[in-house]
Amino acid sequence: MLFSNDPIPVSILSGSLGAGKTTTLNHILNSERELNAAVVVNDMGEVNVDADLVERESELTQEDDGIIELSNGCICCRLRGDMLDEVGRLAEERDFDYLLVESSGISEPIPVAQTFARGFEDAEFDPTGVYELDTMVSVVDAHSFWQGFDSGQALTDDSIEPQGNRVPEEALMDQIEFCDVLLLNKCDLVPEAELDEMEAVLEALQPRAKIIRTEHGVVDPTEILNTGRFDFERASQSAGWKHELQGGHHHGAAAEEHGVTSFVFDADRPFHPERIAQFFADIPDGIIRAKGFFWSAGREDIAMGLDKAGQSVRAGPTGTWIATLPKAEQEQYFAARPGIKEDWDEQWGDRGNQLVFIGRGFDQESLVDRLNDCLLSDAEMDEDWSEFADPFSPDEQRELALADD
Ligand SMILES: Nc1nc2c(ncn2[C@@H]2O[C@H](COP(=O)(O)OP(=O)(O)OP(=O)(O)O)[C@@H](O)[C@H]2O)c(=O)[nH]1
């Protein structure tokens, strides 16, 4: 039992459509009979099927406010304020000790976590001190794991309304990269050897999370409730690619055995815009994740970003080079990050390329050769860069057209 001033712990379940979130939630509710939980279920459709399933298979009912349904929208965007107002109302009554949230299959976990950890400007209710985010759980479907990274397969499904121009594989990547506990569910449908391989990939994409294999969502509730694992700063740094950029390369025996590798391409000369765009549109299938920033010749004023999740590849303007900031701001930046000046170029400052690639069974050497060929040659370094054809969008990261196989 909580004391009335203790914050109420919250566990959030994310995961793609049909991965097993509802099944897991029901398992938890049924095996923790003593747990006095309230549940928020977010469904994209008009009828909240998941809420009905939770109600039918557990002892909670919607009438006595055990379950809040948020339908026809997503709690990571349109329904963020609604969710807070609802859980604020719940907190006033305060006859429960734990809050469980099941997000919709395409929810991005970061904004949902932010809503609980830091509140949301458009909502009246401020959750800080009332709720405390305890564990972010992502449920990954082992049975459709590889297809999950295939070209927009789920986009053809009419029941899904993509968020903006985001695609489900990007949501899947977010869910893998931002969580404390990762349930690899539906393990009954996949041979052991293949599960080992998936786990090696998952570890490379997300080195911090605890990975647990499950069948029909059967997991020890202590892995999900009151774990105290969530920490916003740590979670936002936990993606494998960030780790890699910070020089934290260490893959275990499992990765090695399954040919899972990663590397950072680092160069301080600009890319030819047309050649690098072509390269991005034709990255080998083995690369599951690529991320980072780059310098496209002719765009000296802006840092370009690359974001590849499965078959989806986005590239375009993303940020600012420190070299383009006013002197006073630059000094502040240098003061805060003493190491940065080591890579500072007299003429070009911090402009350069840092791209992380994570995948399995790809030929790193040939990839690096291809990337080197995309850099400007010595002769091109002396040309007028503004004359180069530039296929990138002028103002945002956009999906690149995929090269025909
Ligand atoms: N074989 C097998 N089936 C499973 C497993 N877990 C869940 N299922 C089935 O998969 C289907 C989807 O499970 P749900 O728990 O509804 O998945 P969900 O993630 O809540 O789905 P959405 O809310 O639609 O995104 C159901 O028919 C489950 O019975 C599992 O481990 N193995």
What does this structure look like?
By secondary structure, the protein is of the alpha/beta class. The protein folds into 2 domains: 8-238, P-loop containing nucleotide triphosphate hydrolases (Rossmann fold, 3-Layer(aba) Sandwich), CATH 3.40.50; 252-399, Hypothetical Protein Yjia, Chain: A,domain 2 (2-Layer Sandwich), CATH 3.30.1220.10. Helix content is 29%, strand content 21%. The protein has helices at 21-31, 49-57, 80-93, 109-118, 168-177, 192-205, 232-236, 240-245, 253-257, 273-280, 327-336, 364-374, 378-381, and strands spanning 8-15, 37-43, 67-71, 98-102, 131-141, 181-185, 210-213, 260-267, 287-294, 303-309, 312-319, 353-360, 398-399. The strands form 2 sheets. The chain has a 7-stranded parallel beta sheet, sandwiched between helices. The longest helix is centred in the first third of the chain and has 14 residues, at 80-93. The structure holds guanosine-5'-triphosphate (GTP). Guanosine-5'-triphosphate is lined by residues 15, 17-23, 50, 105, 185-186, 188-189, 215-217. One of its GO terms (molecular function) is hydrolase activity. Keywords: Chaperone, Hydrolase, Nucleotide-binding. Pfam families: cobW, CobW_C. This is CobW domain-containing protein. Residues 260-375 form the CobW C-terminal domain.
